[in-house]
């Protein structure tokens, strides 16, 4: 039975990072007993609710199972608290599309090779791209001086060179990814922490 005495979970939100998504919430406080939580989902096309693999869990988060990982699907979620025979009202989340609502992390800098006039940089993307993902790397770089001028490069390869640099000079760079999704919407990733290297002496 739905009980007005068992409050519904609060702060229910979807957290999504690099296309890995989970539902999380604040625990429901009760005097005694263990509150369990049940999360269900449906897609925008179907009216039927399905289990997410989190039925009667004591946890306060639930990861999206693989069948929910389609990036373009519109997903609706609902969650309720259960205590013995009592159930709270369902809490519904707004429609969620992973493609639009995920946060992209910074790319990983694997290696930097220094030359007198250039830096050769090798990156890996923050997530495993799907075939045909138009992934771009935005590179900002600057000479580490008192009034640095930031220059930008736009690159689709994971191995590239920053050229026309001065020799034996400290340069810093920072990278982020951009992904154009099917709707034409542009997902802009987080900026990596600056990495600094001194160019070689010729």
From TrEMBL:
Q: Which residues form a coiled coil?
A: none
The Fibronectin type-III domain covers which part of the protein?
A: 103-202
Enumerate the InterPro entries for this protein. FN3_dom (IPR003961), FN3_sf (IPR036116), Ig-like_fold (IPR013783), Interferon/interleukin_rcp_dom (IPR015373), Type-II_Cytokine-TF_Rcpt (IPR050650)
Q: Name one GO cellular component term.
A: plasma membrane
User: One MF term from GO for this chain?
Assistant: cytokine receptor activity
Q: Please give the superkingdom of this protein's source.
A: Eukaryota
Q: Which SUPFAM superfamilies match?
A: Fibronectin type III (SSF49265)
Which PROSITE patterns does this chain map to?
FN3
What's the protein called, per UniProt? INGR2 protein
Q: To which species is this protein native?
A: Sterrhoptilus dennistouni
């Amino acid at each position: 039975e739905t009980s007005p005495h068992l409050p519904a979970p609060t702060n229910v939100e979807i957290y999504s990072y690099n296309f890995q998504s989970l539902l999380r919430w604040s625990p429901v406080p009760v005097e005694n007993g263990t509150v369990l939580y049940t999360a269900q989902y449906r897609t925008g096309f179907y009216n039927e609710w399905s289990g997410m693999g989190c039925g009667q869990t004591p946890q306060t988060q639930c990861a999206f199972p693989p069948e929910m990982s389609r990036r373009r699907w519109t997903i609706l979620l609902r969650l309720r608290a259960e205590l013995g025979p009592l159930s709270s009202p369902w809490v519904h989340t707004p429609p969620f599309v992973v493609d639009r609502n995920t946060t992209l992390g910074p790319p990983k800098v694997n290696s930097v090779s220094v030359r007198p006039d250039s830096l050769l940089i090798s990156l890996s993307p923050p997530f495993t791209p799907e075939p045909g993902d138009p992934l771009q790397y935005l590179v900002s770089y600057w000479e580490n001086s008192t009034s640095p001028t930031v220059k930008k490069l736009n690159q689709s390869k994971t191995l590239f060179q920053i050229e026309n640099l001065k020799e034996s000079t400290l340069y810093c760079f920072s990278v982020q990814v951009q992904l154009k999704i099917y709707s034409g919407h542009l997902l802009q990733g987080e900026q990596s922490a600056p990495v600094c290297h001194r160019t070689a002496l010729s």
